Amino acid sequence: MNKKVRFQWGAFLLFLLYGGLFFLLLGRFIYIQVTGEVNGEVLQQRAEEKYSRAQVLEAHRGTIQDRNGNVLAEDTLTYKLYAVVSEEATAHAYDPRHVLDVEETATRLSEHLDLPKEEIATRLQDGITNERYQVEFGAEGRNISHQEMKAIEALNLPGINFEKDLKRLYTNGRFASHLIGFAIKEDVEENKTRLVGKMGLERIYDEILTGTPGRVEYKTDRGGMLLPSSEKLITEPLHGADVKLTNDRTIQNFLEEAVSDVQEQYEPEKITALVVKADSGEILAMTQRPTFDPNTREGLTTNWLNESVENTIEPGSTMKIFTLAAAIEEGKWDPNAWYKSGSYKLLDRTIYDHNVVGWGSITYLEGFQRSSNVSMAYLLEKLGDETFINYIKEFGFGEKTGIDLPNEATGIISDRYPINRLTTTYGQGTTVTPLQLIQGMTAIANEGTMYQPYIIDEIVDPNTGEKLLNHEPVSKESPISAATANQVKDILASTVTSEKGTAQKFKLDSYTSAGKTGTAQIPDSNGNYLWGRQLFLYSFLGMAPVEDPELIVYVAVHKPKIEATEVGSDPTSYIFNYVTENSLKYMNISPDETVERQRIELEDYAGQDVATVQSTLQAQGLEVVTVGAEGAVTEQFPTEGTPVVTGTKVFLKSQGESGLPDMTGWSSREVRVFKEFTGYPIEMTGSGFVIRQSVTPGTVLNPDTPLVIELGSPEEVYTSEPIEVEGEPIEEPVEGE
After folding, report:
1. Which of 317, 414, 478, 494 is catalytic?
2. How far is CA 723 from the centre of its chain?
């Protein structure tokens, strides 16, 4: 009996259901395989984001250096704190790598960060809620010192980590601050910052100093470990260019010290001071008061101007230098001719000498030495107004010098009316910058050759070693001849040496000097001139040594609080004398041989007997330092063909061992040359001249012997005590050795 087959609708429906699901899943699988997308999201990209890691390689901001390579501004290591909040960072429960307790973490961190615990907790919780891997804490979580980093590490808070960070460090503090300026960290985009120059050279050369960060990319497993098959892709950072200045750190320190002393004693409204290399226009030092510490910005006021470049003054009697030069060049100067001092009338105006009554009938030479305004008026008569103004313009007044700094002021030559042209002869009414005065003075110092002042020596790309800029001295056509320049220089020297000269206080102990004092009235906001001993601008523009000028120095002190027994040249002469005397000694200009110095061109001494060469050079007035005691010369410094002057140190290397020389009184520059020449492990502290050395002269050094040299001011030379290294006393030289 056959059974009737019944159609199983239930099984059929189940087959259709599961079959349909199967083909649906199969289609979905094929779609994903072909397109690589799920809900519009690329799976490969998501995997990359989940397992790929990237680390930024910081690019160093370029350094700012002085002429000898001493760093004035550089990046220094600090730490940035961040918190990992993603659970994915933890591979094993016993070793948590992310924040476990938000409240506890916030409470403990608030003890070390300048943030309330509520804000820290909010940042942590937001990171967790938004499924971020890590969070940072803004400016308060950056610039953490090594000591503070160690203190936070000791809390053992899960998920709290540190990343090395960079901060701008100004190693000398209040040092040419308005010139160098400062750079600070700024947020450029979310969680990204960079140092941005805000003032001075840091701002001017911000683009050149700023580097390009590099990057390291790699893949990790869930625990953050590098996958065996993964390769690190490294893009090297490009560091910012290094800017090397003509500034000399030692001379700048001399200037800063002297200016600070005057600021403390006389409490002037402002001080401006410049030191320039006479035969090139290189600015060796530049400062002003008030000033500030670029590391903290403490002392920074609303005045961000570099006073030497961006502001103008009425120069006072320093302008008489150029009036005198014009008269000599035009043949209108007779130093022995006489005139009646005291007052001079021009139309309805009368000008007076600074003592009002004058000194009776005196010669023009005496009038210049006494800084007579009336003598300038009579010289203007002889010169003619138009001729005089043309000379002033040809000296560079009324236009920019072209220094490699922005926002340079031009000043205004006041020549509209006859009285304006008259007062310009002695520096009233017309405005100038200190840089213009310095530039004009280079023509006097260099026998008629005028040099443009400049501050940037070179700019070097540290990534390639390429010099992006190599600044050479720029000479300008000046309106005077060598004969005129030398005559002006001699007359300026007489203002220092003559008993009638106003610059007697500027006489140096060891060198000859020349220059001109200035006492200028300062206009108020209403255009009227202030009057009073404590309301003038006192200045001095000078050079030294007179026979072969090395330095030009300008000092201006505004409204010093001088006592009744003091004069305006007291604060200015203190700065000029201290800086010039010490700087010339530092530059190895022999004080006792200023006049007799002779130029000697060195030969190639290689292969010659070292003792014979030593005797020959000493007979020529050179100081010889030998490294090695016998045989032929194998190396020398300076090299063949280098012109030197008597008193210069010449270094010779030969065979054999030689004892360490007594370096007392050596300049830091000479010590650096000796270090490079010998390869000795020398460490220097301080600045200026050698006052102590850690190893007794005559000792034979080996490469492992540490040698510490302590530098100080010239006054400290030969008055020092022995120094110690790592607690061990150093023997003093036996007298007579």
Report:
1. 317
2. 30
